[in-house]
Amino acid sequence: MLSRRLLRIKALKALxxxxxxxxxxxxxSEKSMMASVDKAYDLYFQMLALPAELVRYAERRQEIARQxxxxxxxxxxxxxxxxxxxxxxxxxxxxxxxxxxxxxxxxWAAYPELIRSIxxxxxxxxxxxxYMNNEERSFQEDRQLVERIFTDELQECEALDTALExxxxxxxxxxxxxxxxxxxxxxxxxxxHAEIKVLPxxxxxxxxxxxxxxxxxxxxxxxxxxxxxEKFTRNWDVERIAFMDNLILAxxxxxxxxxxxxxxxxxxxxxxxxxxxxSSPGSSLFINGILDKMVASLTEEExxxxxxxxxxxxxxxx
Length: 318
What we know:
Elements: H1 4-20, H2 26-48, H3 50-66, H4 73-76, H5 86-92, H6 95-103, H7 112-123, H8 126-133, H9 139-154, H10 158-167, H11 175-187, H12 205-220, H13 222-230, H14 243-258, H15 264-278, H16 283-300
């Protein structure tokens, strides 16, 4: 399922776009945000389909080699361990994956050069060579190879990043979150299971409501939140405070006061971490300091009210 952090980021980006463009319709902006959430889930299936594309390319190469005028012994008797990988075969034959890909019109067909590049790079890797040279075969070994492909080849792949940006501008910054979902899916695979249990888009309806309400309530109370934040930034040069910093603070303020089931510490940790990647250098220290002051003030004003099992005090962990 999509993580709460990714949902917070989606809400922040939608708020930024709405406020910066001075959009008139909150409903339209929210609809665009939810479309971005849907596209992030599309990326999950897109990435699950990638190993099968690598196998199909490997099979085509082997077939071309067999058709040579003077094929070698290796051409006629290729090592088929990779193309027979049981985990990739399970992914390729999954009805749940294939039905989703078809319904959402997701494919790698337009990117043969990317598939070729990833496969050729794979051939040079020591772990892949060791896998191919090991005559023993097991489901666990097959799964470990696929996991290495995702972590070692796809986590930091410039060509893949470029291709994903071309496919959808909504996939910007989503890949690292989606790869966590892919790895979780792979870890749940068993040799005895013919079908893959794909992860749902949301952990529960609470997550769907969370991202909608976080966007709506931040936008509706944005001006009031900004006036409240200004009380704690009077000693700062207001013109030098990045808009994204203020937006992060406003969104965090919404979560602190409007979501009683989310512990304060979780909110602070999440938005401080998000600020490291989505605002100016040093913003995390600034945001950390302002949030601490805001929490103290909100607590004194009794505007932070947390409830739910396991929530004892505002520093309880989620």
